[in-house]
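Protein modeling request. Please complete all fields; requests missing the sequence field cannot be processed.
Requester role: graduate student
Desired output: 3D structure, token encoding
Chains: 1
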Amino acid sequence: MKKIRLLVLAAAAFAAIVSAGAQTLKMEPQVVGVTTYEASTAVNLVVVKPEIKLDNFDFSVLAVNTNGTDREVKSVYPCDSRGAFDPDGEYLALGLEKASGRGLGLAKGSGVWRDEYSVSVGLKPGKTLKVGKQKFTAIECATDKALKDFLSEADYFNKGTFTGKSTGKVGDETLTYASYEPWSLKGDGKPNPLIIWLHGGGEGGVDVSITLLGNEVVSLIRPQIQSHFTTEGGADGAYVLSIQCQTMWMGMANGAMSHGEYPSVYADVLKSCIDDYVMNHPDVDRSRIYLGGCSNGGYMTVAMLIRYPKYFAAAYPTCEAYADANISDNEIAALAEENIWIVQSYDDTTVDPKTHCIPMFQRLVKAGAKNVWMSMFENVQGIDNPGQKLLGHFSWCYLFNDAVTKSQEQSEGDVKPSNDGGGSVAPQGHANIFEWMNAQVLTAPEPPQQQRQQNAQPRPQNGQRPQGQRPPQGGQRPPQNGQR
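Delivered output (484 residues):
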């Protein structure tokens, strides 16, 4: 009996020794980094603050879980609280392997980031973390509010709001916008092109990061697409302006949705927002403003071309939702004078191309359009994940992956969908839609003969005005880019 008691005491003493040697390392979750892909978003970076500085440790023992999915840690580096590399930083950035499939969806509902998103950092089963002479058998680090604050490419944009009059009813509407303005362009002293993007139906609201990340709009600021835009004598690249309405661009004053029957309630405030941005950025080239959008935003792109002819140097509506039946012959004649490149997938079941862009394209060709093109893909195949078939409505994936390279023939005949760039013709000999866009410059209309004769008169001396002419009143400026 005495021997048994001694064995029990020895076991207890040994357990106490083991317990004393077991240590838990505490880490405080900071932020996560969100990456956006062609059809989704994913958390691929986790920033934590360990209670002690961790140097030269084996990070393969770490176990990271995001939103219920186990992730593999691929890299670790010291950083500041926002994930920027800092060799003396007291924070730690954990780079994760790319999320599988379409990634980990983040948005809940329309234009809202989900409230709960869990992230935890621990040790793999049976593993320990050795730091110098210390050994940790557990890590305490978890949060279920990881998306309360996160890092993304949306951080490279300036954010703001604009309020102006609505269309069709009394009162104002407020838009949210994000603008990318690289310092290389702001300091080159040259006029620079401006790319405008209008979101789809699921990205409305008051958080413009939903617009930027929901459809990979951030790809417009990446080097691959920026490199297609050039400025003579200045830095290469373009400004990017993404504008968000609170509901849908197709919304009318009575709350119903328009497919072109009546104007959007946002028609006037959107144009005013663009004008305001251009006025406050004098280095924007007013002859090189490019407008595009997908689905609901594609509808608004066509609506703006009809409402404000010869304002935009080129347009790139994608899976546009403006019904051809609601475009008059006079409007087709005016659109035929614009520079347009349409993008869609033939198997789109959300917006039927056979009642939207295809008949519109055929009517434009019949009306004599010279610089109107249409890329019609067979279906939408993943490029981030080759072989993965996506919804047919997701044709913007080809646009943002810089894969729109060809157009259908300019013909009134049947289209021939092709996943080889969208067609068989290289518009104006350009390699892709962005190079074509870069080449489009809005030219001022030829003045009437009488005005040409007046312009040919000798210029008055000593600041005198020719008789009968008055200076602009109230700060007005001469019409720009053919506006009236």
